[in-house]
Design brief:
The complex is a heterodimer of chains A (428) and B (298). In chain A, α2 crosses α10, α10 runs antiparallel to α11 and α11 runs parallel beside α15. Chain A has 428 residues and is mainly alpha-helical. Chain A has 16 helices and four strands. Chain A folds into two domains: 99 residues, D-Maltodextrin-Binding Protein, domain 2, CATH 3.40.190.10; 222 residues, no CATH class. In chain A, 68% of the residues lie in helices and 4% in strands. The N terminus of chain A is likely disordered. A four-stranded mixed sheet of chain A has the order 2-1-3-4. Chain B is α/β, with parallel strands linked by helices and 298 residues long. Helices cover 33% and strands 30% of the residues of chain B. Chain B has ten helices and 14 strands. In chain B, strands 6-7-8-3-9-10 form a six-stranded mixed sheet, sandwiched between helices. In chain B, α3 crosses α4. The chains are: A mainly alpha (428), B alpha/beta (298). At the A-B interface, α2 and α9 of A face α2, α3 and α4 of B.
Chain lengths: 428, 298
């Protein structure tokens, strides 16, 4: 966790430095005539991409929206829970300790709290119930509510009424059986036997962090890879590419571009995760309860691996296009594997039981960014499987990057109609 | 291989089309070279080839005897035909960025940006986005992008296209100054009058082949004698067409320019002109670049 915080701080400080604008100074000084090595051109391109993206209105608004959605997902349940009023239970006369304990236990079992209101007589109790000042009246032989309990989703008050009625009914039955107080206490304090699985494994449930992580990965991969494609297309259509390639080699230009936009994505993801963790801790949210470092790390790592794989594909596609409509026609087929991976991963995380399809998808570089973090979240994968999947993704990325760079080099300076892959092949 | 920029045997085919066909010529520091040719002659392909933007089938480009590679190109400045700048990026930052890509330090790139924007009358627009500028001012910024890093070779593809006369004068002045500073300046243009005013030498190509190259003065004085004849109320100079040994060249600004074959007496032309009307101008003239261009392509 400490590593994550340090990484976030480093990325934030780096981003802030890049954002700092320096105005040109007018003072004239002798210009250096040494021509430094070219190793800095990738960093220059990367810094420009990061700066321009992070500064853009789209990025700022997008980040704010992500933070708002996360904030709402964390805060609203807490506020809703804290706003639950205790159920007011009217009791005629002074309630005994046993009654108070029985009512409190019944309310707890219904997920609520109870406040006992002592009523002077039955008429006063009925009056308070009619006026809504109390939710139910507990008598020695019955439980009274203002209106008949409707079918369907019960309210907290009706659930407490049912629980209280059940508890007092049990007590009456036990007393009718002429049991001693000690026997009654023994019976009412019974606890269920533990259920033990033959094969021990992790307890599965809806892992909110995995769910948020999958959604975050899908949103970011869709958004940032589209940025790559549009960015490449715009450099081609604005013809600035000729100026750039007169000074920088295509491979280095493209590398700087994808790394810069990738850092913008990582920065946004880090800010979102850090914000969610700080907010959840400060408001006492249970949403991220049980979240382990491995789930957060898997989300970030697979975000990077997914971006690393797809960014080259989208960059190559962008070099084939010269107009917005051409980009859109290319973006649709490219997004299909992502959509499939996303849907399969969502199904797994909500059903809490990964199917064979999820297991298979976790080793395919196109879908692994979505399904593998889910498997990590569900604890259904061992370390060697994660490493194997990551290695397949990295290896595939190297191959894809080489092919994509070749396409980019041949297509980026070809203007006019949309370049087709067979045109690129024939010109090679 | 000698000093300066030397292009040797450049050949590039696109399928059945031969864009460059064994093209060779050279340009030297301290001179402005006009690179001329009709549309589709291969000018842009040649310029792109110098910057490695076009893969050559054969041929070589050298600078001061060394094959031009990425390191040499960083010391070249390029202004492409279809202007290339990031429309949404601030002008100052964009120029500094391009300067740094050409291996300038951050401070040097900023200083050069400030100086060039001041020189080109755009100092106040340093924080504006490129897309907010007029066409002419975008052209100026594009020129600054090519000049920032004090390149040894400056290559400009149609730098005067679409400019008003003050814009042409401003860019022409900069090109001349750059040549005087010892740089090798090559630019293409269809505005031959401006080329004639700016260039010491020209190279004309057609169908990817060299047609003619040389000093403007030499080309202007070379070849057959030519006359400018202005006759009152003459509208097209058609009267010269039936004169033996006299070729119609062009009719501009109310005067006809003719080319005389060897042995043709100028009095024959004068007498014919007098029969048409009062002659207000009759003089032997140099070849204009437009004539050099036209005749070279015939």
């Amino acid at each position: 966790m400490r590593f994550l915080v340090v990484a976030v701080v480093v990325v934030l400080v780096g981003g802030a430095r890049l954002l700092r604008r320096r105005r040109p100074r007018s003072a004239r000084s002798p210009r250096s005539r040494e021509w430094p090595a070219t190793s800095g051109d990738v960093a220059l391109v990367m810094a420009r991409e990061l700066r321009e993206r992070v500064r853009s209105r789209f990025y700022v608004v997008g980040t704010v929206i992500i933070l708002l959605v996360l904030g709402a997902a964390i805060v609203i349940p807490v506020v809703h829970h804290s706003k639950q009023h205790p159920v007011h239970v009217g009791v005629v006369g002074a309630a005994s300790t046993q009654w108070r304990d029985t009512i409190a236990a019944a309310a707890r079992s219904a997920g609520a709290t109870a406040t006992i209101v002592t009523e002077a007589n039955a008429a006063a109790a009925a009056s308070d119930l009619s006026a809504g000042r109390i939710d139910l009246i507990v008598g020695s032989s019955r439980v009274e509510v203002a209106h008949p309990i409707p079918s369907g989703v019960p309210t907290t008050a009706t659930m407490v009424a049912r629980a209280v009625a059940s508890s007092f009914g049990e007590q009456r039955a036990l007393h009718a059986a002429h049991l001693t107080e000690a026997q009654i206490r023994t019976l009412t304090s019974m606890t269920a036997l533990p259920v033990v699985a033959l094969h021990p494994g992790p307890v599965k449930g809806l892992n909110a962090t995995s769910l948020i992580g999958v959604i975050l990965i899908f949103m970011m991969l869709s958004q940032y890879n589209t940025w790559i494609m549009i960015g490449v297309m715009e450099e081609k259509s604005s013809r600035v590419i000729e100026v750039l390639l007169s000074a920088v080699r295509p491979m280095r230009l493209l590398t700087g571009k994808v790394v810069g936009i990738g850092l913008a994505a990582l920065l946004q993801a880090s800010v979102a995760i850090a914000f969610a963790m700080v907010l959840a801790t400060s408001v006492g949210s249970h949403l991220l309860q049980g979240t382990t470092f491995s789930v957060i790390a898997a989300t970030l790592v697979w975000l990077l691996l997914g971006y690393g794989f797809y960014c080259w594909v989208y960059a190559a596609a962008g070099s084939l296009a010269e107009r917005q409509d051409q980009v859109q026609s290319l973006a649709l087929p490219l997004s299909l594997p992502m959509v499939v991976g996303y849907v399969v991963a969502l199904t797994a995380v909500t059903s809490s039981s990964p199917s064979l399809l999820v297991q298979i998808f976790s080793y395919i570089p196109l879908t692994a960014p979505f399904t593998m973090p889910v498997l990590v979240g569900l604890g259904d994968v061992s370390l060697w499987q994660v490493i194997l999947s990551a290695a397949i993704s990295i290896g595939s990325t190297v191959v894809v990057a080489r092919v994509a760079t070749g396409v980019y080099q041949r297509a980026i300076l070809r203007t006019g109609a949309r370049v087709r892959l067979r045109d690129v092949r024939s010109s090679s | 291989m000698g000093d300066g920029l030397e292009l040797s045997g450049l050949t590039r085919r696109f399928g059945d089309l031969t864009a460059l066909d064994d093209l060779s010529f050279s340009a030297h520091g301290g001179q402005v070279l006009g690179f001329l040719g009709p549309n589709g002659a291969g000018k842009t392909t040649t310029m792109r080839a110098i910057f490695g933007l076009v893969e050559l089938d054969s041929g070589s480009v050298t600078w001061n005897g060394a094959t031009v590679g990425p390191e040499q190109r960083r010391r070249f400045g390029y202004m492409p035909e279809e202007r290339g700048l990031y429309p949404g990026m601030r002008i100052g930052e964009q120029l500094t960025y391009i300067g740094r890509l050409h291996a300038m330090s951050h401070g040097d790139a900023q200083r050069a940006t400030t100086e060039w924007l001041e020189q080109l009358g755009l100092a106040e627009r340093v924080d504006d986005k490129v897309e907010s500028l007029s066409h002419g001012n975008q052209q100026r910024v594009q020129l600054a992008a090519a000049l920032l890093h004090e390149p040894d070779v400056l290559i400009l593809d149609e730098p005067l296209a679409g400019l008003d006369p003050p814009g042409i004068d401003a860019i022409g002045r900069v090109l001349t100054e750059q040549a005087r500073a010892g740089r090798c300046v090559i630019f293409s243009s269809h505005q031959l009058d401006q080329v004639e005013d700016l260039c010491e030498t020209v190279t004309i190509i057609d169908h990817g082949r060299l047609v003619v190259t040389g000093r403007v003065d030499d080309l202007a004085t070379h070849g057959a004698r030519r006359l400018t004849v202005r006759v009152d109320h003459d509208v097209d100079g058609a009267w010269v067409r039936d004169l033996p040994g006299v070729s119609f060249s062009e009719f501009t600004a109310g005067a006809v320019r003719v080319v005389l074959d060897d042995g043709v007496d100028t009095d024959v032309v004068l007498d014919r002109a007098r029969r048409v009307g009062r002659v207000s101008e009759f003089s032997l003239v140099r070849r204009r670049l437009s004539e050099v261009f036209r005749e070279a392509l015939q």
